[in-house]
Amino acid sequence: MRDVISTYTDNTDMSNVTSPNVTLRSVLRLNNNDFKEFICGWGSAVINVSITFPINKIIFRQILEGVPAGTALRQISQEGIKLLYRGILPPLCQKTLSLSLMFSTYEGCKQRLYILTGNDVVAKILAANMAGAAEAILTPLERVQTLLQDWRYHDKFKNTPHAFKYLLTNYGVAECYRALVPIIYRNGCSNLMFFTLRDQSKIFLGDHESLLTNFISGALIGGFTSTVFYPINVLYNGTG
Prior knowledge:
By secondary structure, the protein is mainly α. Helices cover 76% and strands 0% of the residues. The chain has twelve helices and no strands. It has helices at residues 2-9, 24-28, 32-65, 69-79, 89-117, 120-135, 139-149, 160-170, 173-176, 180-205, 211-228, 230-238. Mean pLDDT is 82; it is low at 1-13 and 15-19.
């Protein structure tokens, strides 16, 4: 079983993988690749959030206030450096766990589903949606991030624990999972698009694949996917 997993995790085209008779228990057993994908997702999220948080804050302000980027930038500049990274803890926790779950769940489920079904397309579709549903567990962190980034609540919430306590005390768990349905749809569809394009880029690059080409293709694919599903993010932030 270990040989079977290692065979197709090292190849983009899983159509070359044979599906031997294996037990369900051996298929579901965790392997080294599961932990590798989890750690890689965590590391990429830490770098991502730390660098792009101020930019995302400008975007969020544009969505919330309906103002141009220049106006949003001036507003945030006037608030000072002290508030620039206010609210970073929820997205840092959410993104690190989310990307870790996304990569590890998708790759792990895809591998196991292909062994069980022998169908590459079905395995990818189901794995993408399973990963999206797993990410949706972290919706409360997105909800708190929305509140902390809203300037109207700067004086109302001291920090992340305070915002969580307020939500749970006054509105209950249901409020933490507001807009769960669009989030699940967004996660599943965006995961499927991202990993499909990533696999195709690996095939296209072939022998020319390197750290630089992976970085560029990943940035382009991520940017394209984010743009396509941007309206859903606007809808979600509008429910705050």
